[in-house]
Amino acid sequence: MNAKQFEKIVQELAGIIDEGIHIVSADGKSIVYNQAMATLEKMEREDVIGKPFRLVFSHIPKEQSTLRRALKYGEPTLNKTQTYLNRYGKEISTVNTTIPILDDNEKVIAAVELSKDITDIKKLSNTILELQAETIPRHKVTEPKIRKYSFKDLIGENKRLKQTLSIACKASKTDASVFIYGETGTGKELIAQSIHFNSARKEKPFLAQNCAALPESLLEGILFGTTKGGFTGAVDRPGLFEQATGGTLLLDEISAMPYELQSKLLRVLQEDYIRRVGGNKDIPIDVRIIATVNETPEELMQNGCLRKDLFYRLNIINISIPPLRERKDDIPILVDYFLEKHNARFEKEVWMTSEGALRKLENYDYPGNVRELENFIMSAVSLADKEHVLTEDLLQLPNSRSLGIGKSEYDYEDMTIDEYLERTEISIIKETMAEMGGNISKAADALGLKRQTLQHKLKKYKI
């Protein structure tokens, strides 16, 4: 294959890739510049290809050009956030990786740059930091602007729930890190806020960040802050660790945090200081960490989503919230509570629940837990006219999940026998997995299945 044929293949591949690709030869001329990159930088490809890239992109200071560094010094740049102006003066933000290409004699013969547009995400992250900063009092603390939850907002008399709340209440009397496991909708943030607002830190900030919401390059800046000049477009801005000084930082879905960033977080927790992105100054911190996950920590560590050393560092106090299907004795209490809450909201007067409606609610398995139950009640109350009794007709529950396993009545209206058997199997698998703490091997033994067979069913049913 000659050079022209190889270049043709590269051009074709670059044309079907969504990320921007810019390849510059050793003499500084652009030889590949795909449409994704042209769209990102608002350029015409014919204005770039075959021309000296430093002439075309003269508006970028040469010391800030990662392509120039790659060509001149053989210096790679990996996953670097850059903010710069395109030729029309519009600010754009990208995550760039620039790699020098070397021949057999280790001489630079080209440089390849891959760019991903994160302009909108960068604006969102800046907005998050600004809004978080606005919630922190500048002088004497009065009333936080975020909604506060306390233990009285956690409703239920179930024995397992009471044990969980007892541990959480004791946790509020210490400064130790807390690790909370609970399925979606079980109330992890309610417990986290209750711990904070029942602690000695209650007059200090409570800040929360969902680790799954942003890419690594932006999440690191949000957590640790940025230093002006640390990278192109960077400004001096404190991160959440600095903003939460003296208070509590909730890291929701911490297992979604990139593995490399987890190691940086571990170092911060061990040393009690942070260093802003692009900075060289160590800043001491005093922040309590509460971390949450919605899958069992054992499975997350086994699958490589959660670092073991980080888990053991955070898991000083462990809190496991029971799902609603394991505390169905609390459903009548929760229904009354949500009726009162949403009657006031919608100016309705649905004060009682029929036996049929209650039985229907108790027969459901609640993949969305307490949040899902509240949604059912909120929907029923909002649809009520002059009714004073919550009846089955007002409840809009998915029939396919109202199994009533072990009950005398089954809600299998509009179900075929195959659908009913499938739903029954799902319910049994979920119940067994919960009993075995999410351990697939133990659950497979209890069900009399091979581990591979159970794994197939978990994937098939998206459990």
From TrEMBL:
Protein name: Sigma 54-interacting transcriptional regulator
Organism ancestry: Bacteria, Bacillati, Bacillota, Clostridia, Eubacteriales
BP-aspect Gene Ontology terms: regulation of DNA-templated transcription
Keywords assigned by UniProt, alphabetized: ATP-binding, Nucleotide-binding, Transcription, Transcription regulation
One term of GO molecular function: sequence-specific DNA binding
InterPro entries named in the record: AAA+_ATPase, AAA_lid_NorR, Homeodomain-like_sf, HTH_Fis, P-loop_NTPase, PAS, PAS-like_dom_sf, PAS_4
Domain Sigma-54 factor interaction: 154-382
Domain PAS: 2-72
Gene3D superfamilies cross-referenced by the UniProt entry: 1.10.8.60, Homeodomain-like, P-loop containing nucleotide triphosphate hydrolases, PAS domain
